[in-house]
Structures are given as C-alpha cells and as structure tokens.
Design goal:
4-stranded mixed β-sheet; flat; 78 residues; single chain; alpha/beta; 14% helix
C-alpha cells in the first residue's frame, strides 16, 4: 500500500506496533537499550475513517500470527 510503511529491528521475539510516522525517530531506542527481540513498526495508511488496519490485515501484515507476541495500537491525541 502506497502510504504504509514497515520498519524492522531484528532479534528473536516479534512485537508489532502500529504507530504514527512521528514515532519513527524513537525506533532506535530498543537498540540503544540492548533489548532482545524484533520490533516491527507498521505505519497505518488511511486510518481516519479509511480502515487502514483492515487493509494491513488483508495484506497479511500481521502474519504469521504465531510469531507475534504482542500488538499495540497507538493513537496519540494532539
């Protein structure tokens, strides 16, 4: 999907985090803290009324399901 994004920090455990684009500068924090695991950051397109999470699920962004330990949706209020 054109406005989606995918970032990966790799180790052994996968956590999916759906976040706003402005959260990307903080993605290096787990590396700086030497946290074990893999974090995949998914930027959700068309979230305000466009069903962005549904589109990501249909595109199999959250698979394989057994590899995902946690999924968080963050929608800050500004």
């Amino acid at each position: 999907m054109a406005s989606a994004l995918l970032g990966n920090l790799m180790n052994s455990v996968l956590e999916d985090v759906s976040s706003e684009y402005d959260a990307l500068p903080g993605a290096k924090a787990p590396v700086d803290l030497k946290v074990a695991g893999r974090i995949r950051i998914l930027g959700t397109p068309a979230e305000e009324g466009g069903g962005g999470k549904v589109k990501l699920i249909e595109a199999r962004a959250f698979t394989p399901r057994e590899d995902i330990a946690a999924a968080f949706m963050i929608h800050p209020i500004s």
